[in-house]
Amino acid sequence: MQRDEQIFELIQAEKERQLHGLELIASENFVSNQVMEAAGSVLTNKYAEGYPGKRYYGGCEVVDEVEQIAIDRAKALFGAEYVNVQPHSGSQANTAVYHACLNPGDKILGFDLSHGGHLTHGSPVNFSGKLYNPVFYGVEEETGVLNYDKIQEIATKEQPKLIIAGASAYSRDIDFARFRVIADSVGAILMADISHPAGMIAKGILNDPMPHCHIVTTTTHKTLRGPRGGMIMMGKDFDNPFGITLKDGSLRKMSSLLDSAVFPGNQGGPLEHIIAAKAIAFGEALTDEFLHYQLQVKANAAALAKALVGKGYNIISGGTDNHCMLIDLRNKDISGKDAEQALVKADITVNKNMVPFDTRSPFVTSGIRIGAAAVTTRGLKEAEMEQIVELIDEVIMNYQDEAVLEAVADKVNALMADRPLFVA
Ligand code: PLP
Question: Where in the numbering of this chain does the Serine hydroxymethyltransferase-like domain appear (predicted)?
């Protein structure tokens, strides 16, 4: 077979882009060489519908072991009693939870997308907003933080069946214990979506949802630094509260409902090459090195926020407890879209993002979201965060000046020269 140069040249071009640029997208990271190797391994050839020991295909002895190791490592990492490592993505993990817990039309209470939530938390353009009946909580306009008394009021009024605690662009720690009080007061199931801060939570740097939330979902590719994928966990298995009974009259356990919701409810064959890569990433995350990495991510994010505030940038909530922050650009006379485009020309990648109470459309927006997980993997520390803020500011203040953007790109390339994608 002839090598497909067209695609391999593009892969090389993307590698060069990643190597020479500054990656500040809060949801991205760089996996280790061994995670990459597993993701590109022969396991991609294997069909394995079902679960370890209960497959619908022959020849699954090896992948059974791989998947069980991934499950066991995730349990150890997060202190979970139940783990399903098969969801192909964070969205599919959330889809499976809703499928297991809800009927179409049931009410869900989630974090408003325009305030920092995720599409799968009830957005009208997503299945979660079309199939279910979403209501939302958001942040306070003055402070940019969640007001738990208001969330309680909304829950009491709306009586949702499922409450989602978690976000894509919220820089403050989440009070899962308080969310549980709210959920219990209305008899709702509480799901935490820790896709963004999962790596920090795993190492005890942020509040732990596992003792408080019935179900926890996550992606594996953000701060957790694994391959692109999703996962569902429970601290403790429980009887499903909505009365689906088995033949013997007993209630079906949530673990069994969740497993069925992933397969056959929502997916066919699992991606065993990705599950192997997840297992390796979980093994890496169990080490002390990963704790040091997460502490550096937190320190770098705090340094970015401090330097940005020092230059007059408005960070929603005034700072960050985790890896990310949302910058409101309304005092800088530039839209999120223009900022993103100018920064990309300077080899700095961020994403435009709605800010709470934004008056611009989601295609334009008034803000950008940045995060420190990927640049920390590249080996950058607090001093470089200050340099990065200088570079961002130069771009934003001169966003229509191509010469300035080119000059900043040269400085970015010099900063990132000789740094491998993954620094062990
Ligand atoms: N949940 C949250 C909070 C997220 O931030 C994301 C991704 O950005 C997802 C779910 C969905 O993950 P995926 O893109 O893997 O479907």
Answer: 2-392
Query: What are the percentages of helix, strand and coil residues in the chain, rounded to 5?
Result: 45, 15, 40
pLDDT at 104 over 80: yes
Closest-CA residue, ligand 1 atom 14, reads 90
Output the DSSP codes for 48-92. --EETTEESSS--HHHHHHHHHHHHHHHHHHT-SEEE---SSHHH
- Which residues have a Cβ under 8 Å from the Cβ of 14 and sit 6 or more positions away? none
Q: Is 243 annotated as a binding residue?
A: no
Mean of the per-residue pLDDT values of the chain = 96
Q: Are 36 and 420 in contact (CB under 8 A)?
A: no
Task: Give the amino acid at 394.
Answer: E
Question: What pLDDT shows up at residue 251?
Answer: 75
Which residues are catalytically annotated? Answer: 47, 49, 193, 219, 222, 228
Check if the interface score ipTM surpasses 0.95. Answer: yes
Ligand 1 centroid from CA 282, angstroms:
18
pTM: 0.96
Instruction: Specify burial of residue 2 (Cβ count, 10 A radius: 0-12, 13-18, 19+).
Output: exposed
Helix (H/G/I), strand (E/B), else coil: 163 = strand
Owner of token pair 């297992």: 279
User: What pLDDT, in 10s, does the model give residues 328-383?
Assistant: 999 999 999 999 999 999 999 999 999 999 999 999 999 999 999 999 999 999 99
- Say how many Å lie between the CA of residue 281 and the centre of ligand 1: 18
**Is the CB of residue 326 less than 8 Å from the CB of residue 138?**
no
Q: Is 361 annotated as a binding residue?
A: yes
Q: Is 371 in the pocket of ligand 1 (CB under 6 A)?
A: no
Distance, CA of 294 to chain centre: 15
Task: Please return the burial class of 402, using the count of CB atoms within 10 Å of its CB with bins 0-12, 13-18 and 19+.
Answer: exposed
